[in-house]
Amino acid sequence: MSFICKSSYVLRRSLDKVRTALSSKRWKSIAQTTLKKASPSGRGVRSRLRRTPIDPKILETINELEVCSPRRRRTEYPDQERFSGRVFQVWSRGGELYKRARVPEEFPEAILPEVALIGRSNVGKSCLVNSLVGGTKSRYLAETKDFPGTTRELGFYVLRSGFLSVVDLPGYGFAFAEEQEKKQWLETVKEYLQQRKTLKRLLILLDARHGIMKADRDMLQFFKRCKVKSQFVLNKCDLVKDDELARRIYMIREEISSGVYKRILKNVMMTSSHTRAGAFTLQAELTGLALRPSQRHRLKLDLATRGNVPDAIRRALKS
Ligand SMILES: Nc1nc2c(ncn2[C@@H]2O[C@H](COP(=O)(O)OP(=O)(O)OP(=O)(O)O)[C@@H](O)[C@H]2O)c(=O)[nH]1
Ligand SMILES: [Mg+2]
């Protein structure tokens, strides 16, 4: 069974690479036909996507953000002037990992507001954490690999500004790991989502090439039971064309509007962790969840007499 899963994964990856490499029209149509045959849900979704209209406003945003461009961005904050100083105050100094947790007993005390990233294994959660928390120097804090099942523990990161915390979660769906271990990390993730009082937003990462897949739909049923507000983030946008991305976003928005999901925001974010495009816009979106300076000051005073506070959080609040 595991051999079959592994081979089908390798086959899908190879086909993805072939599709990217082949750009001539003739080869492209051959590759797409092969892909359609290989993908289990391929045909219906692809033809639906082709029939989906392109919203010019969505297309304009995509082009403004340059998320579909495969070129790496030179500047970290290209659209700096468009955003308030508050985004810089919260994010620009980056953050650090202060705790890993394999089981709920290891969760750190809930102190700062948290934003968690979830999604299928290999969708790029840890890469996006690095884009968000790496600061202007783009430090690589979370381990990333082209291997589903890299992150097996919850990683808690605190921003050096002391306003917000970011949590990298292990993925769901297919991963190279023992069934028992996968089951255990999924249980820990579910426990975290249900009990964490300081969790303010759940970012559900989707691969821009595939959109919402079966594994995501299964998890979305579970998210309905959680109280937290969620938001879709289409990652790996550098691997798709702008018109395909515009259609994909339109489709997802339609699905959200149909009311099948609960507490999911209609605003679908777009990123490419490779080029860092869209990361700043996402930071700006999340800044509203961070502590206000007065709340931060009060928290700093409260924590002065409390034990059990991780050093990194104490340091961040002192700064
Ligand atoms: N082209 C492209 N590749 C990406 C992007 N984001 C991540 N990747 C690649 O996708 C692979 C998986 O990235 P990770 O960040 O480790 O994925 P993950 O979701 O954390 O995976 P798990 O920890 O296994 O759940 C790596 O090889 C990354 O280089 C992106 O925006 N564009
Ligand atoms: Mg990871």
Here the CATH topology of the largest domain equals Rossmann fold
| Spatial sequence of strands, sheet with the most strands | 1-3-4-2-5-6-7
How many runs of DSSP E, i.e. beta strands? 7
What separation lies between the terminal Cα atoms?
Answer: 52 Å
Order of helices and strands: HHHHHEEHEEHEHEHEHHH
The tally of helices reads 12
Q: In CATH, what is the class of the largest domain?
A: Alpha Beta
List segments where confidence is low: pLDDT < 50 over at least 5 consecutive residues.
Answer: 22-28, 33-40
Rg result: 20 Å
Could you estimate the helical fraction of the residues in percent? 40-55%
**Average pLDDT across residues?**
85
CATH homologous superfamily placement of the largest domain: P-loop containing nucleotide triphosphate hydrolases
Bound molecules: guanosine-5'-triphosphate, magnesium ion
Shape: globular
Please identify, by name, the CATH architecture of the largest domain.
3-Layer(aba) Sandwich
Family: Belongs to the TRAFAC class TrmE-Era-EngA-EngB-Septin-like GTPase superfamily. EngB GTPase family.
Cofactor: Mg(2+)
Protein name: EngB-type G domain-containing protein
Pfam families: MMR_HSR1
Task: Kindly describe this structure.
With 319 residues, the chain is α/β, with parallel strands linked by helices. It folds into 2 domains: 1-39; 47-318, Rossmann fold (3-Layer(aba) Sandwich). It contains 12 helices and 7 strands. Helix 9 links the parallel strand 6 (229-235) and strand 7. Helix 1 (2-21) runs antiparallel to helix 2 (25-38) and helix 4 crosses helix 9. The longest helix is centred in the first third of the chain and has 20 residues, at 2-21. It starts with a helix and ends with a helix. Residues 22-28 and 33-40 have low confidence and may be disordered. Guanosine-5'-triphosphate (GTP) binds next to helix 6. One of its GO terms (biological process) is cell division. Belongs to the TRAFAC class TrmE-Era-EngA-EngB-Septin-like GTPase superfamily. EngB GTPase family.
